[in-house]
Structures are given as C-alpha cells and as structure tokens.
Design goal:
Hypothetical protein af1432; 5 strands; alpha+beta; 3 domains; Alpha-Beta Plaits; 509 residues; five-stranded mixed sheet
Length: 509
C-alpha cells in the first residue's frame, strides 16, 4: 500500500512532525560516511551524556555478554562495532525526540509499550535467524508504527476514542485505509524516507503489516519478515490472557521464517528475559500486561498439543455451562470450593489430581504439585482475633491466583495449607512458579495484614514424569509434602519472600 500524491500533499501541509534532533541527524550523516572512524563516532555520541550512558550500558548488557566490562565509550564501540553503535544510538535518540510529540487521540504509553516490545521481539527473531544486522532490525521495528504519530498530528480526530482500536492493531490499520486509502505503515515508510534512513529500513517499515506465508532464506526478506512478525509477538505480551493467539503467531513464524514451535518458544523466552533491560534503557514503565514468566508459561502450554486440546475441552465445557445455566451446576461448583478463600477444597483437589496423574502417566506428560504452608496463624488469631487470621488466608489465596496460570488448580487442603496442581509442568518450571509465589508473598505484607516478624511460611514441590515416575498419586503427594517439611526444617525467615522452595526429594534422594 503506497501513499498517493493527494495524501502525501495533505500530510506535508498538516504534519508538523519533528525532524531528527541534532545528534540523531548527525548520526544519520555519519552512517552514510564509508570512511567513518571510531574516534569521530565517540566524539559525536559524547555530546549527549545520556545517550553515551545508554550505549555503554547496552554494551555491558547480556545481549553482548563480554568477560571484560567496557569502562569507556571507546571500549563500548569496539564491543558493539560501528554500525551497531550508530544504529542503537539513533534508536535511543529518536525515541527521546518522538516521545515529545503531542497526543490528540493516541494513548502514548500504550504506543511506546508496543513499539519497545516489537523492537525487542524483532531483535530476538534476528538473533534466532542469525541475521547479521540485528540492531537495524531493532530500529526498523521500533519505528514501524511511527506513521501513527504523524497521522495523530495531521488528523486530530482520526484516533479519538481509539484505545480499543489501538489494542487491536489490524483494526486500526483498517480504519486508516478506509479513510485515507493508506495505512500508517505506508505513511511511516514515506516519512522515514524523508529522514534519509537506509532504504532497507524504509521498506521494512512500509511492509510491516505483510506476513508472507512461504519460507525464504534471502537475508533481505528475513530482515523485513523479522519486523513484520515483531508486532504480533509484541501483542502476545500486551493482550489479556484469553486473547493471546500463541498458536496462530507460532504458525506464522514457522511459515514465514521456518522457525519451529520450540524455536519460537525460545524467542518468546528471550523477549521475556530482555524486557527488564529494555524498560531500564528506554526508561519505560512495565511493558508486559502480566508478569512475563506467566505469559511464557501460558505459551509453553498452548504450544503443546495436549494443552491445545485442554483449551478446547475447557471452552467446550464453558459453552455447555453457559447454555445450561442451571442452578444444579452452580450448587455443584459451590460444593467444590472452600467457602472462606474461594479456591477449591481438598476433595476436589484429590479428584483432579487423580485424573491428571493418570493422564500424565499414560501420555508421558510432566505434572507438578506444590504445597504451601502458612505458619503462626494460630498465634496471630490469638493476638489479633479470628478476623485477622481469615483475612490472611483470603489474601494468601489471592496471591496464589495472581501468580499461577489460568489452568493451574489452587486448593485449600488444610487449615493453614494450600496446594497447587501444575499440569504439563516440569521441575524447572515448577521451581520458578514456587519462587515467584515466594517473591509475591515477600512484598505483600500490607495485603496480608501482618508484620513480617509475626508471619512465616514454607513451600515445596514434586514433579511426576521426566526423570522419575511415582507409583501412585498418594506417593506423589507424599513427595511434595516431604519437600514442604524439608523447607520448614531449614528454618522460617521473618519474611515469606526469603523462604526458598525445597528440592524435589524424589530427584535428589
């Protein structure tokens, strides 16, 4: 989709869009000089102390893991290389410039969250494809939606009330095309040409909505396809849990780039690992709508055939329940719940565990369970009353729900004990879940209504499948409870957040 002459003239007359700021313009000029030297680049970057600090930081980041830390801008330039340094510096400088644009209808925080997630995703894809220009792919993905900022200035009513459209990117482009006969990708490509950026960046921006259904190993095409896939991957971290199209996006990556599902899952893990550094370098608020590890765990489930079937079964069940809407079903569901905390009760936990244990054994799927015990609740009840104890139990249930996945099952299995069933979950993932729960409790003193010195807890887990298979669900539960007891014997700390999950006794002997 190209920008026709009428739209172009209209944009030129209306868009008071910022040209690249001084340092950025100088960087673009330097990049066109085939004889450029390190010293000249270093002098240019040193004109902006904040920019220099960002370049130095990224040179010392895990992306460019070096045994020796870069102490100066010159050393950072050696680590990164001239082209990468200029491209990254331009990224930082342009973001700083464009963030100052006035908003008419666009939600700017949401725009920049998606832009930074897309750039991070494109970089992860470039690394997975071993492309020689990952920094340029990062920059192209970062700027792929810059046409939105231009249109928001040129046509203040275009995006008014458009938060919902902004979340669903394809719908946004349709609105633009209907009114302008061009979308923001085409307009972004046109605008970037006026900034004299390299043509491969302009082409990638202009075609950022086009995902090719057939594989190619042409480096120029891989460059463009990494950019076009970066937006849908960014959306996986922005959309709500029930809206994330993991399977569809994985299929697009496989058809367009030849990335199998395992490799695509690794790309998502790389993006999740890069998010904190991206947030810090670009001084951005939280990029992902949910904790990245929760998103990655959902991805692992959805990208497994078993989990796709489970999702279909769950959706079918929901449909039946919606159609039936009978009081009997409501009463049956209530009978499975703990009345105080709202999570499932022990009887339902045991019923589901037996079913999951049989499925795991029959199909060789990993299955994990975790037990968490809240301690000193009786003394808290004696000191503050029954209401304080009940408040703590309810808060603990909320923390467990917030830090597990949609298809994990949480139950209250005793006065002070909770259990979590983690389907399709291996030992490493179960430990990560436990540690995340621990960390959440450690920062939730206000929610728990308890002074850290008065409260402690322990958590332990076991995994069936992989290296060890238990003879029965009963032995499986015993192993998890033994891990819980081992955690308690090591001594409770004043704060839950410092209590580490015990190792799986069945694996450690």
């Amino acid at each position: 989709m190209r920008v026709n002459s009428e739209i172009e003239a209209h944009l030129r007359s209306l868009v008071n869009f910022p040209s690249p700021p001084g340092v950025a313009a100088h960087i673009i000029e330097l990049a066109r000089d085939p004889e450029i030297e390190l010293a000249k680049v270093a002098r240019t970057l040193s004109l902006d102390s904040a920019l220099s600090a960002k370049v130095l930081r990224i040179a010392n980041s895990p992306l460019y893991a070096q045994r020796r830390k870069s102490e100066s801008l010159r050393q950072a330039l050696v680590v990164l290389g001239l082209n990468a340094t200029l491209t990254l510096a331009l990224s930082f400088s342009l973001v700083k410039c464009l963030r100052g644009a006035k908003s008419n209808g666009i939600n700017h925080p949401l725009y920049w969250r998606r832009a930074l997630l897309a750039a991070t995703s494109a970089r992860a894809l470039a690394d997975a494809m071993h492309h020689p220009c990952p920094e340029e792919i990062f920059l192209a993905a970062l700027l792929q939606d810059v046409g939105i900022l231009a249109l928001d200035q040129a046509m203040p009513d275009l995006y008014r009330g458009g938060d919902r459209l902004q979340i669903h990117h394809a719908a946004l482009a349709q609105v633009e095309a209907k009114r302008l006969q061009a979308d923001h990708a085409a307009i972004g490509g046109w605008l970037m040409r006026s900034w004299s950026l390299p043509e491969r960046l302009n082409v990638a921006i202009e075609h950022s909505h086009l995902i090719d259904p057939s594989f190619t190993d042409d480096p120029a095409e891989i460059f463009r396809r990494c950019v076009s896939l970066s937006g849908p991957i960014a959306d996986l971290f922005l959309l709500s849990q029930e809206q994330r199209p993991f399977a569809e996006t994985a299929q697009s990556a496989e058809r367009s780039l030849g990335l199998e599902r395992t490799a695509f899952g690794q790309v998502l893990a790389t993006v999740g690992a890069m998010i904190p550094e991206t947030e810090a370098i670009f001084e951005s608020e939280s990029l992902a709508a949910q904790h990245p590890e929760l998103i990655l765990e959902q991805a692992r489930e959805v990208l497994m055939l078993r989990s796709v079937n489970a999702l279909n079964e769950l959706n079918s069940l929901r449909s039946v329940v919606d159609r039936a809407g009978s009081k009997a079903l409501e009463v049956e569901e209530e009978s499975r719940r703990d009345p105080l905390t709202g999570v499932y009760n022990r009887a339902h936990f045991e019923h589901v565990l037996l079913r999951e244990f049989e499925n795991s054994t029959r199909n060789d799927w990993p299955l994990s369970i975790a037990f968490a015990n809240l301690d000193r609740l009786e003394s808290i009840k004696d000191k503050y009353g029954l209401e304080a104890r009940e408040h703590m139990l309810q808060a603990a249930a909320r923390i467990l729900r917030d830090n597990t996945r949609e298809h994990d099952l949480i139950a209250r299995c005793g006065e002070e004990e909770f259990a979590v069933i983690l389907p399709s979950t291996d030992t490493a993932t179960a430990r990560a879940v436990c540690e995340r729960i621990v960390a959440a409790f450690g920062t939730a003193d206000d929610a728990l209504g308890a002074h850290p010195a008065e409260f402690s807890a322990s958590i332990g887990s076991a995994t069936h499948g992989g290296e060890i298979f238990f003879a029965s669900a009963h032995e499986f539960v015993e192993a998890a409870e033994q891990a819980l007891r081992a955690a308690g014997k090591r001594g409770h700390s004043a704060c839950f957040g410092r209590q580490i999950a015990a190792p799986n006794p069945a694996r450690t002997g």
